[in-house]
Amino acid sequence: MGDAAANGRNRGRLASILLARQPRFTDSTNDTTATAKSKDDYTMAVSFWIADPPRLSLFSIHCSKPPGSRHTMYPDFLVLPQVVGADGPFVLLRAGFYAGAGSREYFLYKAAVDAPPSLERIPTPDEFGSDGDDLRGVREFGILGHGGHYLVAALLDAPSSSDDYLLRIYSSEKRSWSTRTLQNPCPGVDRVIVDKVIKIGQGGLLGWVDLSHGLLLCDLLPLQDPDPTGGGGGGVSFFIPMPEPLPGNRYKEKYPIPPTEKMKKHPLVEEPSRSASWFRDLACVNGVLKLIEMENPAPPENKDNIISDSDLIMWLKRKAVDRNSKQHLSSFRNDWRAVTWSRGVSPSSANFWWQTCATPVPKMKGSDQWLMLIKDTRQLVTFTDLYSAFPVLSPADNGHDILYLKSLVEPSHRDGWVAAVDIGKETLEEIAPYYLPDDWYYSHRFNPEHPFSACTLSSHMDITPGIQVSAFRKITEPSSSADQPSNISASGLQEPSSPRSKFQRL
């Protein structure tokens, strides 16, 4: 399907995958497995299990304590490993070990076709004498390969200014962190609060994306030269504003579903910032920015200057549901559309967005033909009957604009489906089971952020049967690793042999 159909025959590689952010735990390994030691000498092994989108690819963890550890009766992790950055052959993981009292540690995985994969621990800034760990609040990091080495970048707010940023950059070549100040390129406009980080083109340009606000861009490579002033300055950035939400979405940032409150406030507003990730996504494909937005179609234009009672009553009903949106997903079922915009990236390119496509779901080919059966009620449903949210644009440059959606029969359901839509062809290409590890639900009644992301890790791997998700599901023996935190049962961490979904394809 999609990416695989166009690129799956490229020497056994997939152009891109959908990677789950949360791990599975098993002591099984494959050709992707790499290991590293934590600060307190825990040995952590990371493996990847690849599937053709829209099926989810997984990563698994096996951890062992050092010999003679005094923590043998305790779990390995206080904070489970989680993906906090990915680009090309790189995936960045963040974890908190029990022996370190949950303090965060970072591990960078690198895939390679002509060499064994590697896993390298990245020391945190406080290990170099910085005052405290100021990376804990960073939702996502930028990663940039650079001449056999790599850079990891974290964007922070400058503490002495309400407008500027701090950029912390780790260089694997120098094995140290540096800090540069970035002036707000658009004074008087709120700083971005990052939803995701994307790489722009083939150089050193990274973009920090605030889906409801704008895109901050900075070239990291010039910042690797010594600052002649010695003051940690010299960072040059520019800002691209996001289009205003479509009329059908302007209430949704105030009432997000699920609650997606970000970790801090914009400095110029009183209310917490809301993430637009549940109805928007942005990707850079072949040097072009592509923005997708899901919208309930706005009401028809009122040419007669008349407002009927039925229209007002419908508006009042929607308003009442919106107030209770934590329990009800009031949109993106039945009648909605996917709208896309594109634009160039460089400051010299055209300084506007242009709408490239508007795809109404009821007219989408195949949307009424993919039948699922709800086992409990024996009810038949189609794609248009499902609640869909959290759009993800494929980063693969294969001539297709593929959109992935998380789809559920009811918002309260744990599991559901991932749908793949070809926006240009206005076609529902495929739909596949979606499910998370059981431990996710111990701490999250609703997903606070997108539980999977698109990345091109698979294009740097030869996909053999032993690293596919199907091979992982054949594992029937429970893991012998004591990886689970104290509030999670061992049985909850083993990947089920079949999805727990209440739905079946017919």
The shape, in one word, is globular
What Rg do the Cα atoms give?
23 Å
Number of strands: 29
Average pLDDT confidence is 77
**Structural classification:** mainly beta
Quaternary structure annotation: single chain
Helical content band: under 10%
Quote the distance from N terminus to C terminus.
18 Å
Secondary structure elements and pairings:
Layout: H1 2-7, E1 17-20, E2 24-25, E3 34-37, E4 43-49, E5 56-64, E6 77-87, E7 90-97, E8 104-110, E9 118-122, E10 142-146, E11 149-157, E12 165-171, E13 176-182, E14 196-200, E15 205-210, E16 214-219, E17 237-241, E18 280-285, E19 288-295, H2 309-323, E20 337-343, E21 354-360, E22 372-374, E23 379-381, E24 387-393, E25 402-408, E26 416-422, E27 427-434, H3 440-443, E28 452-455, H4 469-473, E29 503-505
Parallel strand pairs: 1-5, 2-5
Antiparallel strand pairs: 1-28, 3-4, 4-5, 6-7, 7-8, 8-9, 10-11, 11-12, 12-13, 14-15, 15-16, 16-17, 18-19, 19-20, 20-21, 22-23, 22-29, 24-25, 25-26, 26-27
Report on this model:
By secondary structure, the protein is mainly beta. Residues 1-11, 257-261, 263-272, 323-330, 438-448 and 476-506 have low confidence and may be disordered. 6% of the residues lie in helices and 35% in strands. Strands 1, 2, 3, 4, 5 and 28 form a six-stranded mixed sheet that branches. The chain has a four-stranded antiparallel sheet with strand order 6-7-8-9, with no helix packed on it. A four-stranded antiparallel sheet has the order 10-11-12-13, with no helix packed on it. The chain is globular. It has helices spanning 2-7, 309-323, 440-443, 469-473, and strands spanning 17-20, 24-25, 34-37, 43-49, 56-64, 77-87, 90-97, 104-110, 118-122, 142-146, 149-157, 165-171, 176-182, 196-200, 205-210, 214-219, 237-241, 280-285, 288-295, 337-343, 354-360, 372-374, 379-381, 387-393, 402-408, 416-422, 427-434, 452-455, 503-505.
